[in-house]
Amino acid sequence: MAYKITQSENKLPEFNSGLPPVLYATSAASLFGDGTMIRRVCCICEKEFWVYPSAIKRGRSKCCSLKCANQSISQSLKGRIRPAEIGRKISNTKIKMGYIASESTRKKISKNRKGKCMGLDNCNWKGGRIKDTEGYIFVLNRNHPFARKSGYILEHRLVLEKHLGRYLQPEEIIHHINEIVDDNRIGNLRLFPTKSAHTKFHQTKVQDG
Hints:
With 209 residues, this protein is of the alpha+beta class.
């Protein structure tokens, strides 16, 4: 259904089916272009709304609102991969255009890759010594009993363990005297038996000014 707005009209007539949110204008024809609008039904909420033929040509007349449009996009992309991943090669096999590999296929790929691209074979290898976002340095030591799942452990703990000749217990805390956390010289490290003792040291330091 199409409705033509004349130059003399200053608002659209009221329909029970619903109208655009903007009804009033000094000149309806100047506001809506040539004044031709077409009634459509939203593909999500099935609410009737009005659009221009130009919007239909651009394919933007399927939904009545941005909320419904986003929901329509989510439904259309469900089960698909992102555009950047389309055609990406996995285990020398090209993914079917637009779809994620099946669960069984992903398990086969994971099994095939297990143990590969590690250490020197990994493109992100940094020599087994990395720094986290807080500035602490970690060193790769997979044989350490208190290493993380990734195999890395804090470098200052290794330095103090070498100096003491024993493993540090998880509850033992190391304090950097100059408060520079990547300065792991043995003279800059102080050992506290517990986390509470370390916290108490800082509180006393603040009180003393």
